[in-house]
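Dear colleague,

Following up on yesterday's call, I've attached the two folding results inline so they're easy to grep. Please treat them as preliminary; we haven't cross-checked anything against experimental data yet. The first protein's sequence and structure tokens come first.
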Amino acid sequence: MSVAQRDGIRTADQIGYEDLYRRWEQSNWSAYDIDLSQDRAGWDSLTEIQRRSALWTYSMFFYGEDSVADNLSPYIDAAPKAEQKYFLATQQVDEARHAIFFHRFFKEVIGAGDSVSSTLAYTLPQLGWGYRNVFDRLDRMADELRKDRSLPNFARAIALYHMVVEATLAQPGQHFIEDYFASAGTLPGFSEGMSNISRDEQRHIGFGVKVLAECFAESEECKDAVAELLRELMPYSLAVFTPPNWDLEYTRCYGFELEDIFAFGIRSVRTKWKATGYPLDEMPGVFPVDPDLDPIEIARRQIKLMRAGVMGEPNGRPDSSPEIQELLFDLIARVAQANAAAGTDPITVQWKFSDADPWHLRIANGSTAALPGMAPAPDLTLEASWRDWVAVAVQGEDPRRMMLRRRIRPHGSLRNLIRLQRIFPRRPNTLG
């Protein structure tokens, strides 16, 4: 059964910790019992680009499984309920087993490394900017959880581990890998192992949904903590599936487009966050897109902004074409906290770029509109280069530091500058 068939996540009140534990006992499997003897011939039959793509993808899985196994212990310590601790202990066993399975595949099929350490070292050149930043954050989260076992911090940690790493990143990749090799039949051992891993991960994600639903029901602080984390991670998590050198053959050689992965992930995580009782569309600034857009169109826009150097890994020369400007200012308008200006005079903010066309934002009666060109009488004008504004709006640069360095030059009253700070409250690595 594919991930897509299993992805109908139940509501949190239909998920029980005892049931999750029982499922773990019933579905135990051995990483060493899987027969990989036929997989070497299947690996050799792949084209060169298919092998490069598989190495890139499997390296992310292998490194990720090892990382989550290493970082799970503080989660067990911080879990407030005994049932949660027991399940997390089973999950740590799962993650270690997954890492051993990938080690076997790299060693016996790809021919890379002889120990787990040497095989992991072999994967490092395959890990991109977005991936490294997500897993660096997972390392820091484990350290933070050791020092702060509060419920909001535990909720933040569960969101990172179970909902970002497993549901947003791992599951879409598993879906396409499983579907391709289940159909081709060329890597039977690998397909069996991935099917087992996917079943485990679905159980882990169900646990994350259950825990977060309980956290959100108990404390609004948990919602705030999780939304803050997701805003912080968005630039990195979006970029995880960026293929090396933007070579789209890395996915096409297996019969699907990059947009397919993104769209599958969007549908999947929307369903899971809804099951927690805190849907993505209700989280301020986390998913600033038109909710009526088809996931494929959302994916197309995200990929276009990343290839333009506006989102994802900074390239120092972001595209400032009218199409890219329109896409970015649509996001900026959706991030704006329009209610911060409600009940006060309308405000128009003008951006004058030294190397791109001007744009302006008008907020009136709690509504927001971003438009190209010059406004007739702006209340506040920001002068900057397009590159510097992208660095502030998307890449986490501190606007105050940029103003002190005269990289951003505001013109208008101090009152309106303070209003702008309320409309775009400062958050790490987020638009606005």
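Below is the second protein, in the same order (sequence, then structure):
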Amino acid sequence: MPETIEFIERYAEVISAPVRTETEVTSVRSIDGGYYVATTQGDWRCRTVVLAAGACNIPNVPALSDLVPPSITTLTPMEYRNPDQLEQGGVLVVGASATGTQIAAELHGSGRPVTVAVGEHIRVPRSYRGRDIKWWMDAVGVLDEHYEEADNLDRVRSVPSLQLAGSDDHRSVDLNSLTSVGVKLIGRLAGISDGRGQFSGSLRNQVALSDLKMNRLLDRIDEWATDDGLDNEVDPPHRFEPTHIEASPPLFMNLASGDIKTIVWATGYRPDYSWLDVPILDRKGRVRHDGGVVEAPGLYLMGIPFLRRRKSSLIDGAGDDARDLSAHLSAFLNGA
């Protein structure tokens, strides 16, 4: 984190950007000739606005959370800090992407019984053939895949984050590492009725699909390493154990029994556009755009998943998108 902060500060110095810190945008609305931007530190009139507020501002908690028995404490990853916050007793972590698996591992390490409700997730190893998986994805070209190449753009923009954790020992935190220490797995939380949680029976299919996608990625890496002459410079190819699931995972859980004291909603995030007073949101609350060029003339979008490339939401992926959109923005300002 200190290195990331230093990088951003140095970047601002290099480009001489007039950065306004501790300045909250309260409204962006259309006016003749452009937009009016209201903030806590003054207002601006401008012809163009780049919306770069991020895609993960608000926890995306499902509506069925209202049906959780009042005896259970619920919280989101934004509210979670450490196991000491939680009372002793069982924990249900809903969601098995990066956040859910890491929180489940930490809570189990504190001595609490933990169950993870597993929905759609993307399993990848932290390291493969002696190098970080993100190094491989960058080298092979996975992160450069363009949005116009996607078969189903809506779907790829809504897939969960990779099941990855950062640590000094580069270990993988996946479902197998959780079950090996005693964490229980259950299917996706589908409903709650009369204090009983109802869980999907598709857990086995979900993990099989996730394993299949992981192995397809590894196959692609192996093929690229051979074609590029790297086989003698990296470790030999190998495959990981398939995800192990018990024969008949339970489909119901009595949430009112007292066994579960806490539910952590590791169900992802969504952007916050409450300050955006321009009618450009679709029925799901997402900005309508084509590769970052918003429907409203002079508005641009940055930093959301697969904006123009698979790496669009990563710090090192913003540069290529910015170059593309800067060309469009410049042409707009010049009246082209």
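For the second protein, one point worth flagging: Helices lie at 2-14, 98-109, 133-140, 153-156, 175-179, 203-227, 318-333.

Best wishes,
A.L.
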